[in-house]
Amino acid sequence: MIRLLNLFAFTSLIASSVSVAAPNLDLDTYAKAGERVDIGQSRRLNLRCSGKGEPAVILESGAVADSFDWFKVQPLISPFARVCSYDRAGYGFSDGGASKDYIAGSADDLHRLIRVAHIPTPVVLVGHSLGTDIVRNFAMHFPNEVAALVLLDPPPQGIQDATATQRQERDEANAGRAAMLEACKKGATKLQSDPPPAELKSCLRPPNPDYSAKLNAARRTSKTKPAFWDSTAYALDAGSALDFQPVAATEKHGDLPLLILQPDAPFDGMPPEERTMLEAARQRTQNLIAATSRRAEIVPVMHSSHDVQFDRPDAVVDAVRKAIGELSGSSAPADLAKPKK
Questions:
Q1: Residue 38 CA neighbour count, 13 Å, CB half
Q2: What is the DSSP string of 13-29?
Q3: Which of 115, 142, 253, 275 fits as disulfide partner to 267, beta carbons 3.0 to 4.6 Å?
Q4: Cα angle 317-58-256, degrees, rounded to a multiple of 5
């Protein structure tokens, strides 16, 4: 219920966020791999870099998402910085091998990717949703390799106000989700022909009319691999585990520039009681994260859902500019609250 735990609700959110009048053929770059980088252990991660300059900017997607999440943001950053997005293990064009210790394992994979791809450090890390947990973990373990953090709406942790009924409903939903994902994985394992087996057919959405046939086929193919469903289960389990765990008191980022983008409408459509509970937890969580750095700032972002990278890519770009400006000593202001016309 809390970290977009229903997989189909999550993918529907993404689909509605990118709706256009006709297929955008510029998106077909995501129908093929960028650079598949060998990070060791016979595993390759798909990396997409563009632009020039230092520090480099690394974009970390949320749960059940890949480099496609940044199709609006990356082209806006590349004119002034080198910017890279990538597919975590099991997603997009990357190999499988995601760790059950998902957040720490993903941070380790990113560390290997940056090193093997010869991306100069320190880097600016930009994370969305569960990706904020991954980049914060990275910054804790590799502090000398991080120049700044930009966090897009870190999800609520340490939810204190959930009733016993809500906790029971959450546990039942998690159990149902686990069964669904296991069925999807079973179907993917059996997949040898078209149409897909019954176990997998219900897991795949119809082609998206906003995308070309080539892009739809590529995105469908990534979801017909067992590794996708393993990664999805690990990612959603990791997010769920944080629902009732507060931000760790041991998390410290010293003087690291840290910007938290806080959209104004992350819980629209939820029942009022649940929305109130989650908003209170979100505010506590983001205040606690801000307290981990002496150079932190919470930035309100108007007219945006949880998916800031889709609704307000300009706000993400302004935050990156501001982070880089702080590193260089410049004071270029960024108006993140209102969308640019």
A1: 3
A2: HHHHHT--SS--GGGGG
A3: 275
A4: 80
Cα–Cα distance measured from residue 40 to residue 330, given in angstroms and rounded to the nearest whole number: 39
Q: What pTM did the predictor assign?
A: 0.90
Residue 82: alpha-carbon gap to chain centroid:
19
CA–CA gap between residue 155 and residue 2 (Å, rounded):
8
Top pLDDT among 335 and 311 is at 311
CA distance 271 to 275: 6
Structure tokens at 172: 């039942």
| 8-state DSSP, 307 | -
Element spanning 229, H or E? helix 226-241
Backbone phi and psi for residue 247, each to the nearest 5 degrees, phi listed first: -55, 130
Looking at residue 236, its amino acid is: L
Q: Are 94 and 67 in contact (CB under 8 A)?
A: no
If phi over 0 gives left and psi between -120 and 50 gives alpha, with beta otherwise, what is residue 233? alpha
C-alpha span between 279 and 102 (Å, rounded): 25
Q: Could you say which DSSP state residue 293 is in?
A: B
Average pLDDT value over all residues in the chain:
88
